[in-house]
Amino acid sequence: MTRTTMSETATDQEIPAHLTAEPSDYAALLKPRVMSLSIFTALVGMVVAPGPVPSWGLAILSTIAIALGAGASAALNMWWDSDIDGLMARTAKRPIPQGKVPAAEAFGLGIVLSALSVWLLALSGGYLAAGLLAITIGFYVVVYSMFLKRRTPQNIVIGGAAGALPPVVGYAAVTGTVPLEAWALFALIFIWTPPHFWALSLLKKGDYEAAGVPMLPNVKGDAVTRREIWRYSILLVLTAPLIAFFPLAGWLYAASSIVLGAEFLRRAWMLRGSEDNKGAAGLFGFSILYLFALFLVLLVEHWAGFHG
């Protein structure tokens, strides 16, 4: 028979949950899966920028800086939203609601990574890119998380600017400029964001209602949300091929944007006519594939010399 002393039992009971946190819990604060698409679009922005990359070492350092900036945004977002994350099934298992990481530590991590990322990018990509990265972090945390998210159903429309800036940051890191073609990439992601997140909000309406977040389905209803998804999908599919008119894209991108756009529209139309939101999950999943595929094609075109 194994005996457990009172001191051993007391010690087990007195250990705060956050003292047993593992490195994976702190890594989860950076939302690596969610932020990976932003990092990828930033990398593509660097590759498609005209002219040779000044130094691959600096390019790698710039990519690391942008990744740290994305992680910093996520950590600060989790810190600010820690009061509502525990109310939603989708976010209840995050490190702060679970008690594994104190909110204050998430805030500290976010601040340190923000400063480090901007400093590194200033060294490797220049002050313009670093300034844009600082704006991206500030916009996501202050404008979107603190002011828009809990106040207006247009939170995702306006707040989408933060997620659309990474390719512009990457472009600026290589060229030191942000011409119209860089903003064309911004426009693609900016218009893509509402139908992407509104499809998710149709699936998670109960979560947002429990947390008091005024997402479009909770404020205007499912039917209005489905119509808005359709309208933005049309705008997206019309916008995406226009990038082929700039030197950063070619015929392969143009063809891909049309084919993928047709499927996006088909899914959005099916959702629009659905009374029970059937197809929302499919559209949400496809929207991720859609954006990733378009930026992957841009990457392939530049490596294969098909662009321009």
Automatic annotation (TrEMBL):
Catalysed reactions, as listed in the record: heme b + (2E,6E)-farnesyl diphosphate + H2O = Fe(II)-heme o + diphosphate
Signal peptide segment: none
Keyword annotations of the record: Cell membrane, Heme biosynthesis, Membrane, Transferase, Transmembrane, Transmembrane helix
CDD domains: PT_UbiA_Cox10
GO terms of molecular function: protoheme IX farnesyltransferase activity
Chain segments annotated as transmembrane: 34-53, 59-80, 101-121, 127-148, 155-174, 180-200, 234-260, 280-300
Keyword field contains Amino-acid biosynthesis: no
Pathway membership, UniProt: Porphyrin-containing compound metabolism; heme O biosynthesis; heme O from protoheme: step 1/1
Membrane association type: Multi-pass membrane protein
GO CC list: plasma membrane
Any single biological process term in GO: heme O biosynthetic process
Chief location of this protein within or outside the cell: membrane
Subcellular location: Cell membrane
PROSITE patterns, alphabetized: UBIA
Enzyme Commission number(s) from the entry: 2.5.1.141
Additional remarks: Carbon 2 of the heme B porphyrin ring is defined according to the Fischer nomenclature.
Similarity comment: family membership: Belongs to the UbiA prenyltransferase family. Protoheme IX farnesyltransferase subfamily.
Known function: Converts heme B (protoheme IX) to heme O by substitution of the vinyl group on carbon 2 of heme B porphyrin ring with a hydroxyethyl farnesyl side group.
Protein name (database record): Protoheme IX farnesyltransferase
